[in-house]
Amino acid sequence: MITKILPIVLLASIFYIGSIYSSRNLGKKLEKRSQTFNDPVIDNYLKAFQSILDLSELKVFVLNEKQVNGLVTPNGNIYITQGFINQYKLGQVSGAELSSVIAHELGHLALGHTRKRLITFSAASAISLVISTILSRLIPYIGSIIGRYLSQILISGLSRKDEFEADSYAAALLIKSGIGTAPQISLLKKIEKLTGVASSNFTWTLSHPSPEQRIKAIRDLEASWTTEIKNQN
Prior knowledge:
4 strands; alpha+beta; 8 helices; 71% helix
């Protein structure tokens, strides 16, 4: 049994080492293309998060990208793209809504999603390579395509789970800081318009759940918390 899975383990290890190297290089590139975000409104939200989470420091960086997005790197840097900041300055996104993005990225960081994704990607890549090799012999030409597609489904499924978890973390942080989940929900309602990316009915390969699914999950979660508090009283 061990000898059968050993090649996959070795491949996964190789991919993992490569992923760490790539993520470090990516982190350096992002740092070169970004600057610290200073805004009095957002600073107040950051101070609230910093106090609740007992952090010695909490900085957000503006990444010089036109698209609307937020991300966090394994080293703990949180980035909001210039495209998102532009929407904020135009009044299309409120300070509270932007703070919900930061809370979401803090969730990814606190829950270890960034590092977990390195492991997931490495394992999925190794499995994909093995499956592709086997299928290519059985089904020439399209075997490798099927292998890559199966890998994408695996990674996307885990990514969607991470998004729900980060949303839950953000909701709790926003409620505790007095902001509430309303800005989080209102941003999700218009996120497709802001990003220019519409949800697809074919969800297996999507890395994010649909906004509707995320909104429902947040509302259900908040309702369960409210019920729990009432029962305790």
